[in-house]
Amino acid sequence: MQGLIQILARLNGYIALTAGVMLLVTVVAILADVVMRAFGHPLGGTDELSGYVMAIATAWGASYALTERAHVRIELIRNKLVPAGRAWMDLIALAALAITAVVIGWRGWGVLASTLANNSRANTALATPLAWPQTLWFAGWMWFAISALVLLISVIVFMIKRDWNAVDEAAGFKGEL
Q1: How far is it, in rounded angstroms, from Cα 28 to Cα 36?
Q2: Does residue 156 contact residue 91 with C-beta atoms inside 8 Å?
Q3: Strand partners, 129
Q4: CA spacing 20 to 30 A to 49: which of 4, 64, 84, 162?
């Protein structure tokens, strides 16, 4: 299980790097648009495209935050518990996150399915086929759901084995470096 978690973390690292590059390219495009406006030749569409990039990066970035154990949690009670108690708190937190990720993915499919059925396009000058960014956005949420479910199953296996350290390594609070 720990090997699977390491592979998942490595994949999410590459995903985060890709999302970061997308954001950096978006920033450069916006800066170029602002500079070109000064010369009366704006690039146009950067506001629309940056919105797509933000939605896609957020969806995919959630998985990276998950495997890096960077999602916000309140550790006040958890830290006062014995290892088994901390493991149960981690399991509850991860289960809630996995359920949320699955619901977001399920509802995201409704958005994408509607877009595909209607062949929807953005109501902008670019008239972007909305299926393009929405497919990447939906895939990001599905990957988040898969990542959360893999971690949840791993934690359940560790709990059955009473391996509290493995639970802590997989889903516990990482803390500040």
Answers
A1: 12
A2: yes
A3: 121
A4: 64
